Amino acid sequence: MADPLTEPLVSAARKNDPAALRAVYESLAPAVLGYLRAKGCEDPEALTQDVFLTVFSRISTVRGGAAGLRTFAFSVAHARLVDDHRRRERQPSPAPYDPQLDTRSTGSAEDAVLQSGLVAAQMLDGLTAAQREVLLLRVVADLSLQESAEIMGKTVNTVKQLQRRALLALREQIAGKEAAEDDKEDQQHVQQPR
What is the distance between the alpha carbons of residues 38 and 51, in angstroms, rounded to a whole number? Predict the structure, then answer.
């Protein structure tokens, strides 16, 4: 089959003849599209259109007849392909999200609050009944020393002392847990083979 891209057709296309430009496109576009697909272009149809926008904007400067036009079209296609690959390297396309493949999970805020509430309750269990009562009135109920003293039937100084001792006991519990966790980590590092 004879090549539809003839010298007279290229000459007419250089003069921006619409029928000639269409014939040039129909002659070269399938090959350019195939080239871009084979090279792994992300959107070969769009890139083919971009190639021909460039080819048609500069067709009047192309020399060498039909062979020169074909060479120029594939030169532009190659340059656009290189640009496409560079763009993708700089800005990779995001992978589609599939919730069934995502194994990550986090607890809900409700779970976190309940867990912290359990930890707080365990820590309060290590205090005397009076110390627990003072902390609950002062911290949870947000009552003043005077109000807490009235509710508990104690003096303000007694409530201050109970609060201070309760906070010291909690601080010791926290320090003990941190030390136990550090010891556990140290033991894990020692037990791991090198």
Answer: 16
Residue 159 CB neighbour total at 10 angstroms: 25
Phi, psi of 72 (to 5 degrees): -65, -45
- In angstroms, what CA-CA distances link 19 with 1, 8, 23, 173? 21, 12, 6, 88
Whole-angstrom distance, CA of residue 60 vs CA of residue 14: 5
Please report, to the nearest 10 degrees, the dihedral formed by the alpha carbons of residues 52, 56, 62, 68 taken in order: 40
In our burial notation (b when 16+ CB lie closer than 10 A, e otherwise), range 80-93 reads: bbeebeeeeeeeee
Backbone angles phi, psi at 64, to 5 degrees: 100, 10
Long-range contacts from 33-37, C-beta under 8 angstroms, 24+ separation: 35/74, 35/77, 36/77, 36/80, 36/81
Reported as a single tens digit per residue, the pLDDT across 61-70 is: 888 888 899 9
pTM beyond cutoff 0.70: no
With a CB cutoff of 8 Å and minimum separation 6, the contacts of 57 are none
- Whole-number pLDDT of residue 192: 60
Distance between CA atoms of 185 and 183, rounded to whole angstroms?
Answer: 5
What is the DSSP secondary structure assignment for residue 58, as one 8-state letter?
A: S
d(CA 75, CA 50): 13
d(CA 84, CA 116): 51
Copy the structure tokens of residue 9.
């057709």
